[in-house]
């Protein structure tokens, strides 16, 4: 006899890990994934030169062996409200990730030649990004995603440059990823905060404001610097797509029903696979404690 019905929204590291743990503990588990394949953000956005899909395929095989029901192409929102899922299942683990790219909100952001990290990396992984031979690509950001974008642009033939608003010590990217980029002759420029994009119909340059400070400290100086660019990739962060609350009474994570738990990127500031897996285990443990009492 199954211990209870659980819905898992999303099939990234947190979703797949929680599904495996719960299925092994005797729960009836169903996964709802918006895409056509399991794997979440790592499958679609982590470049293949640093992340193999083999682990995802192995986990998918185990999920099938454990009898986990998988629904692909099912986006939670207006057509399939989260509230309805929460009412139908005993528990829900919301592990949908932060798929929405954060815009800079500065002048010229809609110019041709400017892309967000999500569309750029997805096109790169699917072989649709196109060659960048002879182009200068400026990646704006300082995290692992920014480094991924710069390395991908370099492999497409561009002169790749990472522009970050703080110091090198303040970069959230892992040191090994920075070292990999440096070994590939990717240039880093620091203490530059984007102010506006310029160009006649297409991107020609980026105007930055110089900053000062060490580590995570940052102070604007008012001094402007223009950097020539043919292509810009914005990797300035990610956030939860609010469309997931469509059709539900609650409109934020703070208003979730008591039987809905969060895991993965939406559960904390550390946007890494290991952190997502830890948060999944924590969510599963909370459910186990409730059902055992």
Distance between the termini: 17 Å
Q: Which strands sit side by side, in order, in the main sheet?
A: 3-2-1-4-15
Molecular shape = elongated
Q: Structural class of the secondary structure composition?
A: alpha/beta
Per DSSP, what share of the residues sits in E-state strands of 2 or more residues?
15-25%
**Main sheet properties:** 5 strands, parallel
Give the full name of the CATH homologous superfamily of the largest domain. FAD/NAD(P)-binding domain
Mean pLDDT: 96
What is the tally of helical segments? 8
What is the helix fraction of residues, given as a range?
25-40%
Descriptive report:
This protein has helices spanning 13-24, 40-45, 54-65, 82-88, 117-125, 144-155, 175-183, 273-292; strands at 5-9, 28-33, 69-72, 91-94, 100-101, 114-116, 136-140, 159-163, 187-189, 192-198, 205-212, 219-228, 231-234, 238-239, 260-262. Strands 3-2-1-4-15 form a 5-stranded parallel sheet, covered by helices on one side. The chain is elongated, with a radius of gyration of 21 Å. With 293 residues, it is an alpha/beta fold. The protein folds into 2 domains: 5-98 and 240-292, FAD/NAD(P)-binding domain (3-Layer(bba) Sandwich), CATH 3.50.50; 101-234, 3-Layer(bba) Sandwich (FAD/NAD(P)-binding domain). Helix content is 30%, strand content 24%. The protein has 8 helices and 15 strands. Residues 5-279 form the FAD/NAD(P)-binding domain. Pfam families: Pyr_redox_2. It comes from Candidatus Iainarchaeum sp. This is FAD-dependent oxidoreductase. InterPro entries: FAD/NAD-bd_sf, FAD/NAD-binding_dom.
């Amino acid at each position: 006899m199954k211990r209870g019905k659980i819905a898992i929204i999303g099939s990234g590291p947190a979703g797949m890990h929680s599904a495996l743990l719960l299925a092994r503990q005797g729960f009836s588990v169903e996964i709802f994934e918006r895409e056509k394949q399991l794997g979440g953000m790592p499958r679609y956005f982590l470049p293949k030169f640093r992340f193999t899909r083999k682990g995802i395929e192995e986990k998918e095989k185990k999920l099938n062996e454990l009898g986990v029901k998988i629904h692909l192409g099912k986006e939670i929102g207006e057509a399939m409200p989260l509230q309805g899922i929460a009412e139908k299942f005993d528990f829900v683990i919301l592990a949908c990730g932060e798929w929405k790219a954060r815009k800079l909100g500065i002048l010229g952001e809609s110019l041709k030649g400017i892309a967000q990290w999500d569309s750029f990396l997805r096109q790169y992984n699917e072989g649709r990004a196109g060659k960048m031979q002879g182009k200068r690509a400026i990646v704006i950001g300082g995290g692992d995603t920014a480094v991924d974008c710069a390395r991908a642009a370099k492999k497409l033939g561009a002169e790749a440059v990472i522009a970050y608003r703080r110091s090198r010590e303040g970069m959230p990217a892992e040191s090994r990823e920075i070292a990999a980029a440096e070994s590939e002759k990717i240039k880093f420029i620091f203490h530059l905060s984007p102010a506006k994009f310029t160009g006649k119909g297409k991107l020609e340059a980026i105007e930055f404001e110089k900053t000062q400070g060490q580590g995570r400290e940052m102070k604007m100086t008012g001094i402007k610097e223009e950097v020539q660019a043919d292509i810009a990739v914005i990797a300035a962060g990610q956030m939860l797509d609010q469309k997931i609350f469509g059709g539900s009474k609650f409109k934020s994570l703070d208003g979730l029903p008591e039987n809905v738990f969060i895991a993965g990127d939406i559960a904390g500031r550390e946007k890494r696979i290991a952190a997502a897996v830890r948060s999944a285990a924590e969510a599963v443990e909370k459910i186990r404690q409730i059902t055992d009492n």
